[in-house]
Amino acid sequence: MLNNQVSKAVRLAIAFGAASAASFSASTIAAEEGAEKVERIQVTGSRIKRTDLESASPVLVIGREDLAATGELSIGDILQQIPAAGAALNTAFNNGGNGATNMDLRNLGAQRLLVLVNGKRWVSSLGSTVDLNSIPAASIERVEVVKDGASAIYGSDAIAGVVNIITRRDFDGVELSLYGGENMKYNDGRQYSADLTVGTTSERGGLMLNLSHVTQQEIWAGDRDISSMGNSSTTEKGRLRLNSNSISSDLRNQLIAQGYTENNAGESNAGFDLVPNGAGSSVGLDSFRDRDGDVYNYAPENYLVTPQERNSFYVQAFYDISDDVRFVSDFMMTNRESSQLLAAMPLTIGASFGAAASRVDIHENNIYNPFGETLYGDAARSGVEGYVPFAGQRRFVEAGNRIYRQNDTTYRAMVGLEGGIGDTSWVWDASYIYGKNSQDVYTTGLLNLTRINQALGDNCNAATSCVPLNLFGGAGSLTQEMIDYVTFDSVSREGLELKDYTLNFAGDAFELPAGVVGMAVGFERREESGYDTPDPLTQSGETSGNQRDATSGGFRLDEAYVELSIPVIDGLSISPAIRFSDHSAYGSNSTAKVGVEYRPIDDLLLRGTWAEGYRAPSISDLYAGNSDSYPTLTDPCNSVDGSTPDLPGCAGVPNGYAQANTQIRITNVSSPDLKPEESESKTFGFVYNPSAIEGLEFTVDYYDIEVTNSIGRYGASRILNECATGDNEASCDYIDRDANGNVTDLRNFLQNSGTYNVEGIDFYTAYKFETEYGSFRTSLDVSYVMTNEFDGEDQVGIQYGDAGYPEYKGTFALDWALGDFDAHWQTRYVDRMQNYYDVLGYTPFYPGMAAEIGSYTVHDVSVGYSMDAYNTKFTLGIENLFAKEPSPEYLNNDLAISTNNFSVTEYDVNMDRFVYLRATFKF
C-alpha cells in the first residue's frame, strides 16, 4: 500500500508539474521495495506532513521546467495565465498601474489571495496585495497553488486560496542564464534578463545565492490599431463655457453678433461653448469659434506596456547544528525602477471640476482675458456683483507628457531553527521574518493651481514675479516661461514594514484502530505598519492631479491554530482545523476547516473541503487618508434630448443640464471601524489515475465560495444611479452639485457590506507516455465559471473595461523530448464575452460599438537543444505564434470602455509574434 501511494504521488508530480518528477527533488517520497518507513513531506494546504502528495484540497503544481517553457520573465505573468486566475494588476496597466504584478484567483481580488514563499508570508503593500515582480523567477523551483479557502491553516487573506512559491535548494555549481526577445513585426517590447546562480552543499549544510536582472522595454499604445484611439473631453486648444444668464447683456450681444450659438437658450444653464481658433498672444472674441466635436486623442502619448528594470539578490543557507536541530535562513532583495507615461496634463478649472479647481478665477484685467469681465470659478460666490461663472478645460500639450517613475525596493530576511524531538515523530520549527517595502514616486508635468490662479489674476506681471497665462490663444500659445511658472514635479513616498514570529509543532498524536492521528499546532504574531506621504502640494489640493492626504498606521495580529488528520476507516480520513485570531484594530475572530479524503479503490480519490475564511482590513482600508479620483462616469441626470430625465433624484437639476465632463470628481474615504471580511467555501471532486494506464491523471473539482462583509466602496456609479432613480434616497447625501447641476464631489466610503459568490468547475488531465519517437506529455486545464456574482450582479461572460469574466478559460499543452531536443506547445483559450455597455442597452445608440468580444485563442511554442558535453542549453521560443489580436471592444469615439479598448488581463498585449532566445550554461 505504501509503495502504491508512492507510485501515485510520483504520477501526480508528473501530471501536475514539469515533464519529469525531477522538479520534486526536494520533496519526492523516498521508498524502496519492502521498506517499513516512507519519508513524509509537507504539501501546501496542510501543516501535517504526509506520505501522499494528494490531499483534500485541490492543488495545482507548476514545476521549474514548466516555468521556463513559458518564456515569461515574471512569475506574476505566468500565474495570470492559468485558467483559474482572474483579472489583476500587471505591467500593461499604464493609467492606474505602478509597475507591480499581482495574482487573482477566482475573480475575488488579489487582496483575497495569500502569497507565501517557502510556506511563509511575503511582504505586501498597504492594500495587502503582493507584487510578484519582487520575487525573481530564476530563484524558483516550483509553485503550488491551493485552490480553496485556507485561513484556518495560514490565517488572513487566504479566502480564494494560497500561492506558495518554493525556491531552489541543494544547488551545487554555477549556472548562468541569458535571455533576450522582442516583437517581430513592430520591433518593440524588448525584454532581457541575466541570471547567475551559485551554490554548494555538504554533509552539514548548504549555501545558494542568485543574482538576477530583468529589463522590460515599453510598447506604445499608438503603435497598435486597437489601442491607438482614446478620446478625451479636453482639447489641446481649450474649451470654455460662459453662462449667458450671468454675463453682461453687452457681452452676450457681442457674442451673438459674432455668430456664436447660445446653447439651451431660455434655460437656466444657457451659455456659450467656445473653442480658441488659433495661437497667439493677442486674442479677442473673433479668435474663438463654437464648440464642435474635436477632442484630444491621448492614446499615442501613452504606454501600452510599461517599462521597468528589476535587480534581485537572493541567498539562502542551512546548517545542521546537531542531528536534531538545523539552522535555516534566507534573504531576498529586489529593486524595481518602473515608469508610466500619460499624455499632457489636462487643466480643468471652474465650478464643474471640484473645490480646488473652482477657486481659480480669470480676472478682467488679465492681459489675455478678451471678455472684459471677471470669470469666477466658484458658484458659492454668486452674490458678487458682476458674477460670471465659467467652466474651462485646456490640455497642456506644450508642457509635454506626465511621467510617473517608481523606485521600489523590497527586502525580506528570515532566520529560523527546525528539528525533531528525540526518537518521536514530532518535528518543530521557529522563525522570525523581517520584511520591508519602500517606494518613491517621482511625477513630472503636474500643474500648480495656486500659481495658475495667480497667473490668471489681476496683478500678474514682471514686477510681481508672476507670468500671465494665456488660456485663450489655442494650441502653441503657452510659452516655456508660462509653463515653468505653473508646472511642478512631485515626490511621494510610501512603505510597509512586516515583523512575523512563528512557532509550529507537528507529529503523531495518538493511534486509532484505523491508523495514527496526525496533529499540527502553532502560534504566530504578525506586526505591520505603513505610511504614505504625498507631495505637500498634493496633500493641500493645490495641484491639477488627484488630492491625497497622508496615511499612517499599523496593527498587531496574534493567532493560534490546531490541525488534525484523523483516519476513520481504511481509506477514509478527515482533517479538521481551527484558528483563533486577535487583531488590535477590531478584536477577535475564529475560522475553521474540515477536509475529507476517501479512497474506495486504489486508483480513485474522492475529496472535499468546507472552510471558513477571513481577510483582516488592510492598513489602507483602516487608515488611508482621503483621496480624490476622477473616474469616467455617466451622470444619469445628464440631458439627452434637451430636457432633464424624468427621474426623482434629478428634480433639483436645472432643466437641460448637460454634463460638462465625463470624469467626475469623487472622494475616497477609509474607515478605522471596519471588521474582517468573512467567507465560506466548499469544494468536492475526485482524482483518478488508473493503474492500467501509467502516467494518466484526471482531476475534477467543484468549488463554491461566498464572501460576506467584503470591504469595498459603495460605488460612485451606484450612488449616482440610486440617487437619480430614487431607489436609495440616502445616496443623494453623498453628492454635491453646483448651481448648474454639475457634480462637484461624490463621497465614496469603505464599508463591510459587499458580497461575492463564485461557483464553478475545474478540470485537469495529463498523460505522459514514451514512444520510439520520444517522450510525450499532454495536459489540459479548463476552468468553467458557473457564477461570478458581486452584490447580486452576475458578471459571467461580461467584459468590464480592463477586466473580463469569461465563462470558459483553458490551456492545452504538448511537451516532447528526444535525446538532446525538447519542444513545447501551449494553447490558451478565452471564451467570448458580451460588452458591458451592450448589457446596459447602450449599443443601439452607439452603432459603432461592438456588442460582443469574440473568443480568443493564442499559441506559444518553444524548441530546446541541450549540448551535454558543454553543459549548455539553448531555447528558441515564439509567444503568440499567429500574432493573434483581440477583438475591439468599441469603435465609437464618444464612449470608451477601457484605456486601451481591450482587456489587458485576458489577452496578449503584444499583438505580435514575440520571439525570444534563452541560453543556459552550467559549470
UniProtKB/TrEMBL annotation:
Question: Where does it reside?
Answer: Cell outer membrane
The UniProt entry lists the main location of this chain as: membrane
Which residue stretches, if any, does this entry annotate as coiled coil?
none
Which part of the chain is the TonB-dependent receptor-like beta-barrel domain?
Answer: 378-881
Pfam families hit by this protein: Plug (PF07715), TonB_dep_Rec_b-barrel (PF00593)
The signal peptide here is: 1-21
This chain belongs to which protein, by name? TonB-dependent receptor
* Source species of the chain: Pseudoalteromonas lipolytica
Highest classification ranks of the organism:
Bacteria, Pseudomonadati, Pseudomonadota, Gammaproteobacteria, Alteromonadales
